[in-house]
Automatic annotation (TrEMBL), chains A, B:
It is found in: Cytoplasm. It comes from Arenimonas composti TR7-09 = DSM 18010. Its EC number is 2.3.1.-. This is Serine O-succinyltransferase. The record marks 191 as: Important for acyl-CoA specificity. The active site is at 154 (nucleophile), 321, 354. One of its GO terms (cellular component) is cytoplasm. The keyword Iron does not apply. Transfers a succinyl group from succinyl-CoA to L-serine, forming succinyl-L-serine. GO terms for biological process: cysteine biosynthetic process from serine; homoserine metabolic process; methionine biosynthetic process. Pfam families: Abhydrolase_1. Keywords: Acyltransferase, Amino-acid biosynthesis, Cysteine biosynthesis, Cytoplasm, Transferase. Homodimer. GO terms for molecular function: homoserine O-acetyltransferase activity; L-serine O-succinyltransferase activity.
Amino acid sequence: MNAAGPFERIPPGSRFVDLPSPFEFKRGGALHGARVAYETWGELDAAGGNAVLILTGLSPNAHAASHDGDPEPGWWEAMLGPGKPIDSDRWFVICVNTLGSCKGSTGAASIDPATGAPYRLAFPDLSIEDCARAAHAVVRALGIEQLACVIGNSMGGMTALAYLHLHPGAARAHINVSGSAQALPFSIAIRSLQREAIRLDPHWNGGDYDDARYPENGMRIARKLGVVTYRSAMEWDGRFGRVRLDDDTGEDERFGMEFQVESYLEGHAKRFVRSFDPNCYLYLGRAMDWFDLAEYGGGDVMRGLASIRVERALAIGVETDILFPLQQQQQVADGLRAGGCDAEFLALPSPQGHDAFLVDIARFGPAIRGFLDALSH
Amino acid sequence: MNAAGPFERIPPGSRFVDLPSPFEFKRGGALHGARVAYETWGELDAAGGNAVLILTGLSPNAHAASHDGDPEPGWWEAMLGPGKPIDSDRWFVICVNTLGSCKGSTGAASIDPATGAPYRLAFPDLSIEDCARAAHAVVRALGIEQLACVIGNSMGGMTALAYLHLHPGAARAHINVSGSAQALPFSIAIRSLQREAIRLDPHWNGGDYDDARYPENGMRIARKLGVVTYRSAMEWDGRFGRVRLDDDTGEDERFGMEFQVESYLEGHAKRFVRSFDPNCYLYLGRAMDWFDLAEYGGGDVMRGLASIRVERALAIGVETDILFPLQQQQQVADGLRAGGCDAEFLALPSPQGHDAFLVDIARFGPAIRGFLDALSH
């Protein structure tokens, strides 16, 4: 139905749900003819009670794991599938690409049907709450009245809390993975700096770039800064230490790369720069900065959390996370518990920082499996 | 003698010591007609035994505190002076502007006497060890045979260890303030990213910028990234929270500043961008990345530390420091102790991160005073 914009990167197994048109945004403005990309695993049972929704971090697409429609491994391949911690033999699992992304759902890189050209900065001001409402539209379109569980990772942890707040009774359980109920100043500073690096790149050009003039330098800095905050110093001490690059790397410019850690960042930047739309990056990062459940608790984030109605919850985090620090997951558990939820907080000793949930499946897998296994449906 | 380069910022109370000419660098190359800027407080006693040397972090000048030659407050005003923790009624205190800086000592922004133009990237590859040897030249020029104590903050903590290694017996005691014996990958990654932001700025132009075409954007990103790592998330949670800027800040560009923490970073960037030479920033940051006392311990940093001969030492750090984390000061104390030094490690609960020694005088002052008071001379 919709033609893809030049900077959209849509996985081949994507399916789509059309959003109501217009789809009004929390902060004003609306989308017309917008859509949300999703993928699914397993089968919905007759009672429709075994559905699990996964809400992602900033950059992942909806392809969390391989399936018949796309055999490529997904970004959470070890976590999701038959017999895996999120067991598709038992659960009907839906992963939604967030509204505002460039990976299938409508975002700043998508074609505006009113003009036939990408939205770019004409895209309305995106909030996490808009992402949550768009995800809910997918769930309803699939005929699901109530989710067994909504799982949110990182930014998706924010989206999941917004989902539960906006749609009381929409899920019986919630797993918040390295998420938070509000953005705090260190993470706001990091994301602000990432946006500034993109905006200062002359090729960003107020959002009007193309393949030939693309804000590659700004995206390089933004991505490297992201990776620095996604992992942990402790992990890097053991992984890279002070090991230098081989002489034959061809790097001979003044003040160029010398250490393995620099080459690691360079590899991440190269893979990311052209695979994620810069304008979408600006919109999604700012949506995170704006997110604050305290808005729904008279200025008190704990009251905002306590206003959420969900039966059971698990908030997981790791001690080495500097972007969504552990006390934020503790706060999620405490706040939900204050609202009557049977909420558990789990601190894992993973060295991999904020990204641990993507790589430390040995720790995160059993925790998530154990919580899901104990749910009835 | 030397004319200042256009990007040198030399405090009015500076005095100078000429370095031997040529002054050979560790990694090759040499300076001709180079000099080191310094300032002093108090009087050298008849035996010449009460001298204390302060070695600074990356950006400070030699004006650590006010004195008759320059009544302006210095960057460690609350720490140094008559009756203060570093008591100039008792100690003859010398603060040296590091070699490679743009604040009086010869660096990339200084005029190369061979060409009459700034060195820029013709400046030789600077190492921390070169900075230490230049500081030692000042001490010797002042007629001091042995320092009572060498104090090094941050990068200066590295320089102090190099000083002690290169000049056995040159000091009886050492205070290492938020320093380290080697650079680790997280801090290397941060400094590499700062250098990349500067190098990617088209106005950097291979080091050949002027007032009209100056790498302001690269320096903005580099400085903001620095400030993010100099403080701590904990401090910012309490200090800024999610407080927004007043509407009348005149900030109305898309994706511009909204939160107080962003304005705080902006203020730091504005003050810094034109006050520190970009090329000097590249040279000094890389010197820190290169620094590794393990070079003098057969590849083992503890053996490198144990090779240092000093009678007493204090290594201080704070738990919230992410750039020079606390375990690095613990390592300094442990390594010096293994070499026979009476070395103490002190962990302070300051919330201000790496910068705590500049602002948390209530904690750092008594620790430094107590250590100095107990020294004989």
